[in-house]
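Suppose you are handed a protein chain with no further information: no name, no annotation, nothing but its sequence. What can you learn? This example shows the usual starting point.
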Amino acid sequence: MNVVTRHRLLIGLVAAMSALVAQAAGPQTAKLAMQAQKDYFRETCFTLEAGQPLAYQLSTPHPIEFNLHHHRSDGTMVYPDKRVVKSKHSKQLVAESAGAYCFMATNLADQPGAFDVVINYEISAH
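A reasonable first move is to predict its three-dimensional structure. Written in structure tokens, the prediction is:
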């Protein structure tokens, strides 16, 4: 293996480790910018490892259908949290399996204007 190849591998490893650290680094905020029309939806996704803790609180000025869903490696989707949220909701859980997890909000009715669903969350090391 030549020096350039080793250097590229090292840079790739450092980038991958930085991404993993970022997943577990302190509180984070996601703002889902919702449009006013009924059935409009937005989502934001992140990666969790099996057994990794997640805590979140969300607030919305208008009722939404909220879910946290997980895209399993076998192609199925599971919903660790799914409910109508009228103003605030919070939950703590531990990831059942590794992979992509997504917060999703859907507008339940036409609203007078656009609004934000704010999700404060923290992914902890396990």
